[in-house]
Write a structure and sequence with these properties.
The protein is an alpha+beta fold. It has 3 helices and 9 strands. The N and C termini lie far apart (about 55 Å).
């Protein structure tokens, strides 16, 4: 009797879990299709992602004790205070051992001074992280959100640092 209840419960839970994952993954479909062409760095640069971000030490591959982020390519014209899932301000590339860059994540960024909202911006159901000043980039305070849609992040798809990325 207990085994039967367990099996019935399992039969109900598994499809619901799979459906939940599918719905969650679908939240990123627009961003994925809009940025898929940027696996080719030349296409990203031709589209305006021309600034390779460096921190104050000069490092362009960003990492911390929590994990890596990688190489950030900024499209300056998108630093306009608006947030659009299909148009991230930065593309984040993993630097491979041979020096190639592989698209790993998208980063959405808005300066606090440009944000018109009364609370933190949010996207994909999550509030942006606040990066205060002073910070490692020498920037004024800003809000940021990473979306690891091209490389799995065991810490979470919307967590800033990815332990699978090394610089």
């Amino acid at each position: 009797m207990k085994l039967r209840r367990f099996l019935v419960g399992l039969l109900l839970v598994v499809p619901l879990a799979v459906a939940g994952l599918a719905v969650a993954a679908g939240a990123f479909d627009g961003a994925k299709s809009a940025t898929a062409r940027f696996h080719d760095l030349d296409k990203a640069m031709a589209s305006g992602y021309t600034v390779r971000v460096a921190d104050l030490s000069g490092a362009t591959c960003i990492a911390s004790a929590e994990g890596g982020m990688g190489v950030h390519m900024l499209k300056p014209s998108l630093l306009d205070g608006a947030i659009d899932a299909k148009n991230p301000e930065l593309l984040v590339y993993e630097q491979k051992a041979d020096g190639r860059l592989k698209l790993a994540a998208l980063e959405y960024l808005v300066f606090v001074s440009d944000w018109g909202g009364t609370s933190r911006p949010s996207l994909f159901g999550r509030e942006f992280d606040l990066v205060g000043s002073p910070n490692r980039y020498g920037l004024p305070p800003f809000y940021a959100l990473h979306a690891w849609i091209w490389k799995p992040n065991p810490s979470g798809i919307l967590y800033a640092w990815n332990p699978r990325v090394e610089c």
